[in-house]
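Suppose you are handed a protein chain with no further information: no name, no annotation, nothing but its sequence. What can you learn? This example shows the usual starting point.
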Amino acid sequence: MAITKTDFMRGMQCRKMLWLDKHKPGLRVIPPEIQARLDAGNEFGDRAMGMFGPYEEMTVYLPGKKIPDKKAMAAKTQDAIARGVSVICEAAFINYNNYCAADILRKTEQGYDLYEVKNAPEVHEQFVRDAAFQYYIITRCGLKIGRICIITHGPCEENPFVTTDITQQAKGLYRWINDNIWDLNRMQKETEEVCVPDGEQCTQPYECWYFGYCHQTKAADKEIEQ
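A reasonable first move is to predict its three-dimensional structure. Written in structure tokens, the prediction is:
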């Protein structure tokens, strides 16, 4: 097992959430409204790919599945970088099996700028952490990253892409990412289910897909104690 960007973000919200993702994913319950929001986010991300002009997309799926082939995507990305492709979308990187796919990389004289696309009206702290994880993996793979930006959804549908520079904040999280990524790697391999008390992490910044499982389990435990 290793850590992807999604793993990291979910693990930092709640360690038990990540453990359940790895060991009991069948317990997930994704509400229809959440799935609709995820689908809308994917659609917005697809629209944003062309905001800087012609681009190459790195997405490759495993044969017969809708599951990304991470190794193939990483190899395709390295080829695109070697060829000097100006705009690379879903650029994939692997470092010690830890993985990320950047929404948009845009070539500069020094390297590439990184753009993370979010279907939201404003920049939230979790978006900065998301981009910081990508910066960590990408730079450890040897690519120089200049600016780091979040693209949010503005009010004008004809040109909805609003860019916010978060370079300083994201790069400042490098050590924090390093301190936590290896801890999450170790934790997710534990055989015993991780115990985490109920708290804000159950709903913030996102409602956990295991909310029902965790709270039903705790309710059953209380009944047994009584």
